[in-house]
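Morning!

This is the sequence you dropped in the shared folder:
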Amino acid sequence: MSLLFDSFKDWQTHCEANNEPLYKSVLDYETELRGKSETQIFENLSKAFGVMKDAVETGLKEEMISRSGMINNGAKKVYRYPTPVLSLEFQHLIARSLAAKEVNSCMGRIVAAPTAGASGILPGTLYTLQEIHRIEEHKILEGLLVAAGIALIIEQNASLAGAVGGCQAETGSAAAMASGAMVYCLGGDINQVFGAVAITIQCMLGLVCDPVAGLVEVPCVVRNASAAAIAFSSAQISLANVNAVIPVDECVAAMGEIGQSMESRYKETALGGLATTSTGQQISKRVLIHDIEMLDDEEEDIGN
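The structure's back. Tokens below.
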């Protein structure tokens, strides 16, 4: 993307000057980077979206119990619960976001969008959006290109990695990608798309990365669901032309500044936050012992 622009402002200027939709410049970037035709790029995007949908469906149908035991079919429990707190659509959104991330925690096939730790957000949101509004797949694929452009600019000016910027950089970026993609798919203009990104980032600033036992399971899975909800609320707010007040590029800069000043114990090291609670420490010891025992059994099998 830096071949064209390194900020949302420049991206907007480029699109307006060339009378192009947001996704077009990202598509051009992909064709040049990968040496493939536009048709091939869309075919690959379709495969990626297929993997996303498969992850959702797998998480809602198959046994999802992680090796640590911390993940235990939570998505199915939410999906089947008889009383929606808000609406059935919202319940399905939460369950689907949980489902795709549980597949990741159980070593299944996912799309890292932008990371494995945030892999439930785009599948949960876009699957649900497509179902509610009956959006044709090609439009969803264009939305994925918009999401990719959002991620590339965030990566240049802040980070997408929890080890660098905390969970705001992982689930926060994924939620920003999802909200922008949803606004685009619903016919929002550039200002509304970028407004949704800005509002989402504002809601996610400062979120730490504190995985219990060093595993991308707790609280990572439930954060995917909450981030998906924030993405939907940000899209709704921005589509109504509510001003984000702080421009999106300044929101990204704030994310980067916060990530730089965040202590290392809150950046995927499992040295702070929920990972260091008494329960978190107990789980960590149990998981470590379990892994050592499994390793011993494996070595014994190899020796025999």
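Headline: DSSP finds 13 helices and no strands in the chain.

More detail when I'm at my desk.
O.
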